[in-house]
Amino acid sequence: MATYSDIQDWLRTGIREGRWRAGDRLPSEAELCLQFSVSRMTVNRALRELQHAGLVRREQGRGSFVAPLERVAARLELRDLHQDAAERGHHHEAEVLGLRAEPASADCAHALGLRRGQRVFFCQLLHREQGVPLQLESRWVVPSAAPAFLEQDFGRQTPTAYLLQVAPLTAAQYQIEAVAASPEEASCLGLEAGEPCLLVQRLSHGAAGPVSWARLLHRRYVLQGSFTA
Amino acid sequence: MATYSDIQDWLRTGIREGRWRAGDRLPSEAELCLQFSVSRMTVNRALRELQHAGLVRREQGRGSFVAPLERVAARLELRDLHQDAAERGHHHEAEVLGLRAEPASADCAHALGLRRGQRVFFCQLLHREQGVPLQLESRWVVPSAAPAFLEQDFGRQTPTAYLLQVAPLTAAQYQIEAVAASPEEASCLGLEAGEPCLLVQRLSHGAAGPVSWARLLHRRYVLQGSFTA
DNA sequence: CAGTGGTCTAGACCACTAC
DNA sequence: TAGTGGTCTAGACCACTGA
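YS: structure for the whole thing
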């Protein structure tokens, strides 16, 4: 008995092996029904999911086609450092360099949807993995989203984890670039001033609006990923 | 008449507005069938797709739950620069700095599955968008995967686009990091030596094995993305 | 055991495309 | 008009969970 994933396997293999090339028409749903002796719903699901995966393009009235693989895509995940380290079997620790309320700068206010000078919570942490400095985290938090933020011990639980608890994430934006470390940043991370660092900036939104803006500066960090047809 | 996307909208809204929080149990398929007066297949599809989107976790025999949004994920796409610029309505041009066959270095041979010293094709291009240097592309290609590579005019069609044509992509791996520009690289990109650059390295595989290894060095480039529940 | 999700069927009606 | 995909139905059997 054939299942939808048998049909997917057969199509994936054919595409991988060049039986159909980019732009070619695939067998119609009706043809696949006959070939695999399954109902149309089953074939439809197989094709629909291949479409979501980006492997197939479907057009009503015309047919299903092999999608041009013009974009290499992969899931990029920005995760809680502590979990990340734990999954690698590494030890993670965070040193709290600062934790206070301060007036919002123009940039910060803009990102968080506040007025300039309004009170925001700020924290700065140095994360180490296996004792090696890995990330300098500077974070600004909307007080109403996490009123008890300043009373937390971020040596025990990362701000990321805490905020996910008290203000579940509904959306986020990120931005990745290469920057030169300032003298202060360099000394925290154990680098020379001016050394290139990967900077990730992330704005998190909860149900009630912006929650937190984070500036994550990494020492010799490499983002990796892969993509498979 | 309710459709699967009506059900998805209702669930998404409830999750966004905090009606169900991370880990909470959602209504069962049977309950949703009654509530929306639809068949179970329709409800099932709605929930299955929310699961693929990462918003819902389903467990056989237990129920459907709001997924913990512990990872901020987004599709990272590494695309053809020319198309990318075109979609922004910008002009793109590429200057060919080098195009030749050469013996594979150890790194290159390793990445491409060749022996050291074996003949590989090499090209180096400077990409400009709106006249501004944007990316320095250095690329090594397995000759058997694209025998006519050296005869192409990469001022007209990018190597990425050409290779997608002659050796459709089946898989790729990428790696993103921050590096300092070497004096040569800096002069190409119009930077000072040592300035931080975003380096993307990408290994592409076709049906017959590794096709190409690219080293893409960017000037003041920012990768951006977003994630929405 | 009852309730849950995982999957499949054999029909159906519709909108769209191409001829 | 014939063929395509988009969607839905009202059942069905199964594997798994928890009481």
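YS: worth flagging: Chain A has a mean pLDDT of 86.
IM: good catch. Also The beta strands of chain A are 56-59, 63-66, 71-79, 92-103, 119-129, 132-141, 169-180, 196-206, 209-218, 223-228.
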